[in-house]
Amino acid sequence: MTLPAGNYTPQELKWFRSVFDLYYESIRHFAYFKTGDVDLADDIVQEVFLKLWDMRGKVKDETVKALLYTIAGNIIRNHYKHLKVVYNFQVSQKTEFSVGGYSADEVVRMEQLNRQLQDALASIPDGPREVFLMNRIDGLTYEEIAQRLGLSVKAIEKRMSEALAVLRKKFGYKI
Amino acid sequence: MSHERDKSENGYGLSSGHSGLDGMSVPPSRRSKDEAWDLLLKNIEKQQTVTPKLVPFKRTKMLVIAMAASVAITLLVAGYLALTGAVRVDAPLAQSIKVSLPDSSSIYLNQGSWIQYSHLYGWLNRNLTLEGEAYFMVVKGRGKFVVSDPRGQKVEATGTEFSVLTRNNLFTVKCFEGSVKLKVSGMESISLSKGQGIERKGNQWVSVGAGLKQIAKPVWVTKEFYFIEQSLQQVFEEISDYYKISIKAEGFNPESRLFTGTVPANTLTEVLDIISLSTGLTYSISSDSTVCTFR
């Protein structure tokens, strides 16, 4: 599908598609980290890219990544700030069964632990939590997170420390 | 793997064992990436289609046009009225009338006189034109009140009571309350305060009505003659002027006899009877009713 002819150039549409392909997943994850709602995250992604399309004439390639995160953050902050976050991360089969030979009790215990972990994640303050999840779920480095959120690496480190402190307090040991 | 990643794994062990986050991932979307792209394009297309209808600029433009049109129409109507529309009031012969102006000021207009003012009187100014004789009671606090005559002689006031007589070469102004300013082209402007009167004689101002403080408003305003120690000559002149009849004295000098009293300006006979009774004089009126003689 493509857009009907309008006030845009084919180059603009091509550029827009490339940006979408490159950042669709990461923005969707970021929205999920902040809201804990899959459908809402999908809607936010749509809104973020719609806004990017509107301002396509003024966007520079070197700043588009940070811009996308900023737009997403603003949308969430302005419209969903009172959202109660409840995570439901998927736990891969590999983690649970790859080693093999787990007893039924162990499976139940792992599920309980995962549930507790996801609840604990939801209890971390917004800023530290999104940094923590971007690092641990998306595998982004501190530098990459800093670039996307427009913060310094020091700030990211500080937020990580805060997130870990909350988790340590919850679980009472190094999880 | 990055340095930070290594650090987190080694430092806090969050990815080790069953309790780590390694096995966790964000739940998949209900739509594929391509479906999301298609939806995005649909939303963009929808936005482009809808946008022209919702452009606030259009509404604003319409509003501005409507407001501009209203202002233009108002200005046209006001301009038309200001340029062409005027109210003229004429007092018929032998009758004085009272005129109420839009700003609540009042005018007593003596017989045979007229005033004219614009439809915009009271909005933009308080200017009016007078020919004849009028007594003005001007409301305060509404700006300058200007009376001019067709010969360009002007009287300015802000809130006061004064009379103006302007007819042919006559131009007389008397101030009864407050103050007024007279402006005549080629002459020095002059101010009058309560009790003062002035008359133009050529290019000179001549004071009139000495002792105006003791003289009440004009008879044609109050419908009363009010005399305080005035000579019978002056009394006869005022009555003569008011009723347009000639009054003569026989067998006495009217300058030497003074008269004090209030006489209702009803019929001529009533006024003459009162004068006659109070002075002990007798009078007769000629058969053509043009001359009255006191003896």
List the helices and strands and how they pair.
The complex is a heterodimer of chains A (175) and B (295).
Chain A (H helix, E strand, L loop, with lengths): L9 H26 L2 H17 L9 H16 L10 E2 L1 H5 L6 H19 L3 H11 L5 H8 L3 H19 L4
Helix pairs in contact in A: 1-2, 1-3, 1-6, 2-3, 6-8, 7-8
Chain B lengths: L2 H10 L11 E2 L7 H22 L1 H29 L1 E5 L6 E4 L5 E4 L4 E5 L8 E11 L7 E4 L5 E4 L3 E7 L2 E8 L1 E5 L6 E4 L3 E5 L2 E5 L10 H4 L1 E8 H12 L2 E4 L8 E7 L3 H12 L3 E3 L5 E4 L1
Short overview:
The complex is a heterodimer of chains A (175) and B (295). Chain A is mainly α. Chain A is 69% helix and 1% strand.
Q: Could you describe the 3D structure shown?
A:
The complex is a heterodimer of chains A (175) and B (295). With 175 residues, chain A is mostly helical. Chain A has helices at 10-35, 38-54, 64-79, 93-97, 104-122, 126-136, 142-149, 153-171, and one strand at 90-91. Chain A folds into 2 domains: 10-79, Rna Polymerase Sigma Factor, Chain: A, CATH 1.10.1740; 93-171, Winged helix-like DNA-binding domain superfamily/Winged helix DNA-binding domain (Arc Repressor Mutant, subunit A), CATH 1.10.10. Helices cover 69% and strands 1% of the residues of chain A. The longest helix of chain A has 26 residues, at 10-35. Chain A starts with 9 loop residues before the first helix and ends with a helix. The model of chain A is unreliable at 94-100 (pLDDT under 50). Chain B has 295 residues and is of the alpha+beta class. Among the domains of chain B are: 88-210, Jelly Rolls, CATH 2.60.120.1440; 223-294, Phage tail protein beta-alpha-beta fold (3-Layer(bab) Sandwich). Chain B has 6 helices and 19 strands. In chain B, strand 11 (179-183) and strand 12 form a beta hairpin.
